[in-house]
Each structure stands twice: as C-alpha cells, then as structure tokens.
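User: structure tokens for this one?
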Amino acid sequence: MYGLIGKITCLPGHRDSLVTHLLAGTGDMPGCLSYVVAIDPADPNGVWVTEVWETAQHHKDSLALPQVKQAIAAARPIIAGFEHSFETTPVGGVGV
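Assistant:
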C-alpha cells in the first residue's frame, strides 16, 4: 500500500471552501482505500489530508481523473501553501 499525509494551509477565511473543494473530487478514485480530510483544531487555516492507496501508481493515476483535476484547479487560488507532506507505507488498520 501507499500512503500520504499532508497539511495544506489556505488563505485566511477560506478553510471551509478548501475542504469543500478537496472533498468534491473524491467520488470514484480507483485504488483509493481511504481519503480523509480534517480541519486542524490549532490552526484556523490548516487542513490535513490522509490518503491510503493500493499502490503509488493508483495515487498518481488519480491526479489525471477529470473530477480530481477540477477540484485541484478550483482549490489552487485559495491555497497558501503546503506545510507538511509525508509518504507512508500503510500496513493495516480500520478501513484499509
């Protein structure tokens, strides 16, 4: 399996919009075992995304899906930056 954990910082006052955009492209993503969007309780502009994929290629392929490309394009103007990004190798758990 392949995992990603990342923190995205949005422009002030745009966190709800960012969350909406991030969730909009998640309908049908082949190979996605888990995709969780969470707000950071200590940062009013922070959003964490945790992903688990069958393989790294599945994740890469998802970036070419029309709904994912549209969600990224819509979110890009309100993203201030990416603070943290970690690749992981999931070994099990609930929903995996």
